Amino acid sequence: MSERKLRLPEALIFDMDGTLFETDTLLVPVHHRVFETLREERLYEHETPPVERLLSCLGMLLEDIWRQVMPDSTEAARKRADVLLLQYELEGLASGEGELYPHVEATLRELKQRGMKLFVASNGLEDYVKGVARYKGIAELFDGLYSAGEYATASKVDLVARLLQDHGIQSAWMVGDRSSDVEAGKGNGLEAIGCAYATYGRAAELDGADALIGDFRELIKLLDT
User: Fold this and answer.
1) SS3 content of the chain, % helix, strand, coil (to 5)
2) What is the dihedral of CA 31, 33, 34, 38, to 10 degrees?
3) pTM recorded for the entire structure
4) What is the extent of the structural domain holding 208?
5) Which of 55, 67, 118, 191 has the fewest CB atoms inside 10 Å of its own CB, making it the most exposed?
6) Are 161 and 215 part of one and the same domain?
């Protein structure tokens, strides 16, 4: 854990993938199912792209993800992939697939007990973000679950701005694992906490964060100092 002097926040805003949810525990089997179906439906003729390519795009908007993952695809294939990805993710969550990162639930509960307002701000689809929270038993801990899919925001900076305005939040920490999370914090005058335990991004993505944590429980230590 490393930090500069931080202001005590009234709220914590979390990214979902790579921050609260260990996405590859769900996404690896889903990825293969999506491309098997696309080939069966004659929408994609190539080999399944490496799942690492998809994981490295987490945090982007979905339309940008597919351009990176399958640049040689048609718009019809990308639109169908949107539908299949969500369908298979929700089926996987319903059957118990996917894991939160270690200590996430217990730490969120402690933060809630301390009177902290908790939010999610994700570039994912609404049903996916809410589905993860519901199936993993943490939905009731949050004061709001914000997603680019629900609010049609062009960037996470805009999404967090909407959240802050809706709830009258004056001070908060933005907690996430990607450069988009650091930008969302800085672009709204918030402190940014970088989650260095996630493996999806590159370490340089967290340049500019006010603090780095290697374990989710370190959020409690940051608040106490």
Assistant:
1) 50, 15, 35
2) 140
3) 0.93
4) 2-23+99-224
5) 67
6) yes
